Amino acid sequence: INPAFVGGTKRGPSPLLSRGFQRGPLPGEALKGWGRVSPLTLIPGQPRASKQDKMTHHCTKFSGHWKIIVFDEECFQGRRHEFTSECCNVMEFGFETVRSLRIESGAWVGYEHASYQGQQFVLERGEYPQCDAFGGSNAYHIERMTSFRPIACANHRECRMTIYERENFLGRKGELSDDYPSLQAMGWCNNEVGSLRIQSGAFVCYQYPGYRGYQYIMECDRHCGEYKHFREFGSHSQTPQIQSIRRIQQ
Fold it and tell me: Function, please (predicted)?
């Protein structure tokens, strides 16, 4: 399934609805503009987290290397610097901010502020000629990127996660291993996710259907793959609202 935005200028079709997501497909039915989507595996809620839930989370590292080239002016102009590992603050390299970039290899996550704080956004292989391209055409406006790091466990073919209705892994839960442009259309109970576990790979969760709104990068090798409360989704997270999810590609 092709997401609406993969790699800067490489955009696919986007079935966005300006007044909200209307009636979606039944499980297994083709979702217009996205192809066939696997239904969610829904499991009734438990009074407490089961022993089976407390599994060991395995992370399959990407076997290659990571490479990002950043520029301090739009359209790949001005000062440039090449990175193959994380950068806590671009100001340490003489940049006020990053205004364009190229992802040569691997998947990365960019942050609005230094020390991996503020709004976050996934960066997959491709070109990003302006700041507006960093978060994709469906994200909130982004004016700066000051820190970034590689997503070591991204593995598009082997991704598994479990989402829970309530915090601390309680309530109804659903098991995912695919891309979901609308969780509610595929049977999820509401427009929020209280907590989640990443068993393998990495996902990007979106505030709204159609891969729109704030992004939350979820990885199996961070927080031990466990996000007990929406405040652990990211420093910019204000609510547990998550309505679409997709796997991150290397």
Answer: Crystallins are the dominant structural components of the vertebrate eye lens.
114: Cα within 13 Å, side-chain hemisphere: 9
Condensed to tens digits (0 to 9), the pLDDT of residues 38-47 reads 566 666 665 4
Q: May I ask the CATH class of domain 67-150? A: mainly beta
Q: Residue 96: is it exposed, middle or buried by C-beta count within 10 angstroms (0-12/13-18/19+)?
A: exposed
If we measure between CA atoms, which residue out of 167, 133, 151 comes closest to residue 239? 167
CA distance linking residue 181 with residue 31, whole number of Å:
9
State residue 91 phi and psi, 5-degree precision.
-65, -25
Integer Cα distance of 149 and 103 in angstroms: 12
Q: What is the pLDDT of residues 193-239, one digit of tens each?
A: 999 999 999 999 999 999 999 999 999 999 899 999 999 998 888 89
**Side chain identity at residue 99, one-letter code:** R
DSSP codes, 164-232: EEEGGGEEEEEEE-S-BS-TGGGT-SSSB--EEEEEESEEEEEEETTTEEEEEEEETTSGGGEE-SGGG
Position of tokens 């399959």? Answer: 60
Please tell me if the domain spanning 30-46+54-59+155-247 has the same topology as the one spanning 67-150.
yes
Give the span between the Cα atoms of 11 and 197, in whole angstroms: 29
Instruction: Specify the pTM.
Output: 0.77
Write out the E strands in the chain.
Answer: 30-31, 35-36, 41-46, 67-73, 77-83, 100-105, 108-113, 117-123, 126-128, 147-150, 160-166, 170-176, 195-200, 202-208, 212-219, 226-227, 244-247
